[in-house]
Amino acid sequence: MSQNQLTERDMLYDSIMTEKYVSDAYNTTVMESVNQNIIEALQHIQQEEQEHAKLFFEAMHHRGWYTVEAAHPSQAAKQEVDQQISSQMQSRRQQLEQKIQNQG
């Protein structure tokens, strides 16, 4: 194999990384869009990109090229995450309410 050629593993890994980047870009664009038709179109495209990434992941995982550790969070860790999310949501809601009041 020539030094300038990518292996199958390299190509699959590059494809996964590209799909992650593209999906993240769609996510940001969806979050910053105001037109519902555009949001829905972008979400559809993003879902397709995630399906592609899943296929690449499965191909690599099947070959032993991409391993993941099983997550086994404790009940306390789950409760902590739930608490943090709840706190962040409440804070964000208060910020939005304050912003609305300031505009009115």
Categorize the overall geometry. flat
Q: What is the CA-CA span between the terminal residues?
A: 68 Å
Helix content: over 70%
Specify the structural class: mainly alpha
Strand content: under 5%
| Count of helix runs | 3
Instruction: Kindly provide the radius of gyration, computed on alpha-carbon positions and rounded to a whole number of angstroms.
Output: 20 Å
Mind describing the biggest β-sheet? none
User: How many individual β-strands?
Assistant: 0
Instruction: List SSEs in N-to-C order.
Output: HHH
How much is the average pLDDT? Answer: 89
Runs with pLDDT <50, length 5+?
none
Task: Please give a structural write-up.
It is built from three helices and no strands. Helices cover 77% and strands 0% of the residues. The termini are far apart. The mean pLDDT is 89. The protein is an all-alpha fold and 104 residues long. The radius of gyration is 20 Å and the shape is flat.
Question: What's the short story on this structure?
Answer:
The longest helix is centred in the last third of the chain and has 29 residues, at 75-103. The protein has helices at residues 8-31, 36-62, 75-103. The chain contains 3 helices and no strands.
Summarize this structure as a short list of keywords or feature phrases:
3 helices; mainly alpha; 104 residues
Strand and helix map with partners:
Elements lengths: L7 H24 L4 H27 L12 H29 L1
Helix pairs in contact: 1-2
